[in-house]
From TrEMBL:
Entry keywords, A to Z: Bacterial flagellum, Cell projection, Cilium, Flagellum
Listed name of the protein: Flagellar hook protein FlgE
Pfam families registered for this protein in UniProt: Flg_bb_rod (PF00460), Flg_bbr_C (PF06429), LlgE_F_G_D1 (PF22692)
Alphabetical list of SUPFAM superfamilies matching this protein: Flagellar hook protein flgE (SSF117143)
Subcellular location: Bacterial flagellum basal body
Taxonomic lineage of the native organism: Bacteria, Bacillati, Bacillota, Bacilli, Bacillales
GO biological process assignments: bacterial-type flagellum-dependent swarming motility
Family named by the database record: Belongs to the flagella basal body rod proteins family.
Gene Ontology CC terms: bacterial-type flagellum basal body, rod; bacterial-type flagellum hook; cytosol
Organism name: Halalkalibacter hemicellulosilyticusJCM 9152
Length: 263
């Protein structure tokens, strides 16, 4: 069989993966704190036809001759550029202006998220929409008493409330995590990330310290998906897919001619 046919198949498979990534980006264009993905590719092994030779007496050097055998998936990256902050004027909506992740837990494992749409549970603990507790630096939930008259969250993550006597009290400080390689984090669904061997160890601090961003109450970070870019990439992937199908049909026509040599 012709090598070009298998090269075309590899190209079609790669473009399908690229379209899958683009489709997921577009589906999450309105997901709070979502970070878009990007598919990259690399060439497969090349078949050696002739090796390179060094210059000699009376002859110059020659370059190697190789035939490529198609392409393969290189990586699917998570692009951690910041999304724009949208005003909601809701006190428990928190956006991070800068680097860092909120730390949340299900009681067993600790997860990390950029989505700051938080809520109170029955006990007054600050939780995610899925019921995970938001943690302070000591890995403890932050609880505002049920009888508190009001509460506020500052840029440094400090949660204050006014008790029944009208006195200002501190419920705790929301902590942030940062990593040497945030692109190495693994997506867990529900806007959550987990540590991997390549993300680096987790570093815990409070907002505004150690290079992390500050917390902006009353805002939410939007997805960093750019629809114009995604639609352009979709067109590129579609045309590349069509070009690879043309490679297969052309190779098929050549094979048909070879089969028809004997009649």
């Amino acid at each position: 069989m012709l090598r070009s046919m298998y090269s075309g198949i590899s190209g079609m498979n790669n473009m399908q993966t690229k379209l899958d990534v683009i489709g997921n980006n577009i589906a999450n264009v309105n997901t709070f704190g979502f970070k878009k993905g990007r598919a990259t590719f690399k060439d497969m092994i090349n078949q050696q036809i002739a090796g390179a030779s060094a210059p000699g007496a009376g002859l110059g050097g020659t370059n190697p001759m190789q035939v490529g055998l198609g392409s393969m998936l290189g990586s699917i990256d998570t692009i951690h550029t910041g999304g724009s902050l949208q005003n909601t004027n809701r006190e428990l909506d928190l956006g991070i202006s800068g680097d860092g992740f909120f730390r949340v837990t299900d009681g067993e494992a600790i997860f990390y998220t950029r989505a700051g749409n938080f809520y109170f549970d029955e006990d007054g603990a600050i939780v995610t929409s899925g019921g995970l507790y938001v943690l302070d630096e000591d890995d403890e939930p932050i609880i505002v008493p049920e009888n508190a008259r009001s509460f506020s969250i500052g840029q440094t993550g400090v949660v204050n409330y006014v008790d029944v006597d009208g006195d200002l009290q501190e419920a705790g400080t929301i902590s942030l995590a940062y990593f040497a390689n945030p692109e190495g984090l693994q997506k867990q669904g529900d806007n959550l990330y987990q540590v991997t061997p390549n993300s680096g160890a987790v570093n815990i601090t409070t907002p505004g310290n150690e290079g992390t961003g500050v917390v902006v109450a009353g805002t939410l970070e939007m997805s960093n998906v750019d629809l114009s870019e995604e639609f352009t990439e979709m067109i590129v992937a579609q045309r590349a897919f069509q070009a690879n199908t043309r490679i297969i049909t052309t190779s098929d026509e050549i094979l048909q001619e070879l089969v028809n040599l004997k009649r």
